[in-house]
User: Which sequence fits this backbone?
């Protein structure tokens, strides 16, 4: 690369500072696929003959095998994955290899490799999410009749089914898959053929390259194509969002597994001990998941910051996109794998959940709605039940233990049938509107998600 223009070689410290082969080697399969497709266009443009194409392709396939098996000899004096592969090809097949880089720059080459990589990762992440959703559904199905208190502000609010909680997580992850697929549309654009920034005087059939590589579209502006990393930002945002969802589930499970709640218990295979306190059984896997998600936010901010002040077209700063991207991919993939494996082993303490869900205060709203059913305006009913709650607290009794005479004093609408109000199964069964947690709805949702995930 320096042969013609430079007299001196790159300083050793500069070489170490700028090399990317140590991390962009991860892109070798995509780089080779891109080169093979590029050659088909070079043949059509009359630059490479059909026999030469065969030679180049065979050489690249051999190199790919060496890379797959770890036998490839990386040359530290060559900056990146592109130069390493191109140089290995020329060593292997001679002169013909030197034609490969015609009408191509590493600027459009890296943009291509990254898009191919992100496309793959979008699909991989989606299928990992689907496995996690299946894990959540299995758990919901196994515990379909387990009731628990639903919380707002981390205070007991109203009864729900545990399965309803789990289905809520399935929803969030479904949005994540949708978001990934939406980003796929903007990632699925071929940048190759944009050259360094201004295309080439050698005209390539870019539609042909796009077909070879399975791209839906071809970029329409060479300047934009070599500088566009929007798809990386979007993907990193998607991963950050998935991570945020995982972190929230982790947080719930950590809280619910405390001795204070005692709703769930992590299996021993997913718990750690303390080096000091012999009695401890800690939820480190969920804590690590919650903790690792910070990196995903950091990586997103890092790429956005790199991009914000770049002059148009390609600048070397863009090399900084890769480690952030790879780190997020590795982090989310490990976290999804962990959660998918951990959930089936979670022990559900249905007695404790049920007991907590029978707290009469959880039915205060049901009681107000009982009065509404007898014709009272909701605001009035809310106030009356509020007074009942205050009375019960005063007397140190429960909402369902107030004497009928005392109730009548507050409203003549109270009848003997109010005992039913405190029945958790009745309360749940009545919550039948779309999206509400009646057992019937929950069962239908489990079935519907099963079909969607199949
Ligand atoms: N390693 C560079 C990157 O990751 C691609 C090579 C382009 N380098 C260059 N000096 N034009 O973006």
Assistant:
């Amino acid at each position: 690369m320096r042969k013609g223009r430079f007299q001196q070689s790159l300083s050793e410290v500069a070489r170490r500072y700028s090399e990317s082969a140590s991390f962009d080697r991860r892109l070798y399969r995509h780089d080779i696929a891109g080169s093979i497709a590029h050659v088909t266009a070079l043949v059509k443009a009359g630059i490479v003959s059909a026999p030469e194409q065969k030679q180049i392709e065979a050489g690249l396939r051999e190199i790919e095998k060496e890379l797959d098996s770890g036998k490839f000899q990386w040359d530290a004096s060559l900056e990146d994955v592109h130069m390493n592969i191109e140089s290995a090809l020329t060593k292997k097949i001679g002169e013909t290899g030197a034609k490969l880089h015609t009408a191509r720059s590493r600027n459009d080459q890296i943009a291509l490799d990254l898009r191919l990589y992100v496309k793959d990762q979008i699909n991989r992440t989606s299928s990992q999410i689907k496995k996690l959703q299946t894990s959540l559904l299995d758990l919901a199905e196994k515990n379909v009749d387990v009731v628990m208190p639903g919380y707002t502000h981390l205070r007991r609010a109203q009864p729900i089914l545990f399965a309803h909680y789990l289905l809520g997580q399935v929803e969030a992850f479904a949005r994540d898959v949708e978001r990934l697929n939406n980003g796929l549309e903007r990632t699925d654009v071929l940048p190759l053929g944009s050259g360094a920034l201004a295309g080439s005087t050698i005209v390539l059939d870019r539609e042909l390259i796009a077909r070879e590589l399975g791209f839906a579209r071809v970029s329409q502006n060479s300047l934009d194509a070599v500088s566009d990393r929007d798809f990386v930002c979007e993907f990193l945002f998607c991963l950050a969002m998935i991570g945020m969802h995982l972190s929230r589930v982790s947080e719930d499970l950590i809280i619910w597994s405390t001795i204070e709640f005692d709703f769930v218990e992590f299996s021993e295979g997913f718990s750690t001990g303390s080096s000091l306190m012999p009695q401890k059984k800690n939820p480190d896997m969920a804590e690590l998941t919650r903790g690792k998600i910070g990196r995903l936010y950091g990586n997103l901010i890092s790429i956005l910051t790199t991009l914000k002040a770049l002059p148009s077209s390609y600048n070397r700063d863009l090399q900084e996109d890769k480690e952030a991207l790879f780190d997020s991919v590795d982090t989310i993939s490990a976290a999804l794998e962990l959660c998918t494996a951990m959930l089936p082993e979670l022990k559900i303490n249905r007695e404790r959940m049920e007991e907590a869900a029978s707290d009469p205060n959880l039915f205060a709203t049901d009681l107000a709605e009982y009065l509404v059913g007898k014709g009272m305006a909701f605001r009035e009913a809310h106030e009356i039940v509020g007074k009942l709650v205050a009375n019960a607290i005063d007397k140190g009794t429960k909402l369902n233990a107030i004497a009928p005479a005392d109730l009548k004093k507050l409203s003549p609408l109270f009848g003997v049938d109010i005992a039913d109000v405190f029945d958790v199964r009745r309360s749940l069964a009545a919550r039948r509107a779309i999206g509400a947690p009646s057992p019937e709805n929950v069962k239908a949702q489990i079935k519907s998600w099963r079909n969607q995930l199949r």
